[in-house]
Amino acid sequence: MAKDIEKRTPRDLLRIVFRRRALFLVGASVFAVGWLVAARALPVQYTATTVFERRSDEASQEQSKNSPGAVEALRLAMPYDLKGYDAVAQAAENLDLTRGLPHDKQGELTPAGKARKQELVLRLMKAVSVTTDVKTEQVDRVSVSFTDADPRLVQQLPDRLVRNYMNFISNDIVKRLTESREFHARQAQESRGRKQQLTADLIDFETKHAGMMPDDPGAIKEQLDKITTDIEAIRRQQTEATENAAKLKEMVAARKPNDSEEPLQVVKGPNPELQRLKEQRDQAQEQLDSAKTLSHMTEKHPMVATLRAKIADLEARIKETPEEAVLHTVYGQGTTAPDGLDIQLASEESTVKVMKDELERLLPRQAQLQKQMANFGPVRQEYLKLRADLMEQEAEMKRREAPLLEVETALAAEVAQRRTRLAAIQLALPQYKPSDPKLHYILGVALVGGLAFGGGLVFLSNVMDRAVRTTEDAVEGFGLPIFGVIDEIVTPQERFKRRLLRWTIGPVLSVVILIALGLSSLSVVLWLQYPDELEKWKAHPVSFLLSPALTMEQPPKPEEVKKAPEAPAAPAPEPAAPAAETPAGSNPANGASPVPLAPQRSTNAKP
Fold it and tell me: Starting at the edge strand that comes first in sequence, how are the strands of the sheet with 139-148 ordered?
């Protein structure tokens, strides 16, 4: 038999199928009807999708791209934040899905309730899917889909997940930015405190070493050489004046004495103290100008402040000092008027006194410059160290304030909803048609499976058939030659049976099969595409099939609608009782059909 099958061509196979076409059609139809009826037992699943987007302002994103809550961090955490265990559990709590679980007297879930809640959350997590439709630097568009047998839950859960995610992300970003701002504010405040402390230390050091901190040692050497030269010149003048005064005293002592107690002569002249004060003022002013011009010291510098105070004190003393003073007083016996010797003696003694005072003024300054010159290295090193520490701390403070400014800018933009804007652009729609199983899948299985099942029956019947139908079968089966063929002798009873089978039972069986196929197909179509019409068909199948709503009526033209007379207003219908709550897993209430049906015509309606 296997060799016989190998010898057969596709044309022979088609002949076998055609010869047993009744078995093929009946087998295919039975399989199709059985599959269509059994498909009604498949679980129905609904799928709803909520779409939301994250949009960032380009300027705000550029300013705060390195701050907490950046785009990449949101993208990486988005799947868990949307469909993680905590997110799904929170959504289940919001939708009261855990209300029927076992609770104890305190209102807490019992161990059994917690186990059932965990199973519920895990089942919901498996049915949630998150896909990113658009992914750019400024915009991310994300779809959240949920599949379940309850159409109401299918509509509510994605919306709740997206709403909770948007609230969580907004609050979490603001919280983290606030914490970051507080951290950077503390760091910046500590840096400002250290800068203020270093500034105070530098001011104290400058005040302590006021007048001993020029910008370079050359200036100290120049001032020291100048003061040394002045001291040597003053000492020479003082020595000459002392020698001249001694000679003049000897000459005066050689004169005749005067016994009168009253001074013989009072010599007055320019006040040398006034001249000395003016010279000190000019020197202080010269030092002040040099400090401001050459050293670039500001008014807040301790040395500048000291010189300013010294100049003010000298100005006050100059105003209080008279312009003239008694230079010499001559005492003696008799009334002889003093001659030029006395005047010269008084002038020399006055010069000696002035030179002495000037030396007393310049010597401390010389000692101070010598000390400053000797201590210039250590003092300068310590001063430069303080300046370097202060500059380094200022740079550190700027580094601390830069991230603080960025975080404050990001926080302000986040609060104003300009940095990260989350918005649901498409909420989950009410689901009237199941997403699974697919209608084309069920019909395809019925068609392909029916053809395969019918073909299998024909093949099995042909294999098990041992009848001799051709002369070739007889020769091959009996091994005898064939000399003639006698046609089949059909009796009247056999002819009647064949006619009855061909013209009565065959057509009836075909009609029954067609009706079964049509009804089962209609049932599946209504089940998957028009669930509300399925309920009507179950309640009144005959009237549903004969209903004009199933006829393909053409919609009226706009011109006919305008010319049609207005119908009288119908009385307002009585308010209907509120519909009962639809149980979980059933279709949405309100009896609204997703496909508009043609209006029923009433025979009693009047134009």
Answer: 128-135, 139-148, 46-55, 421-426
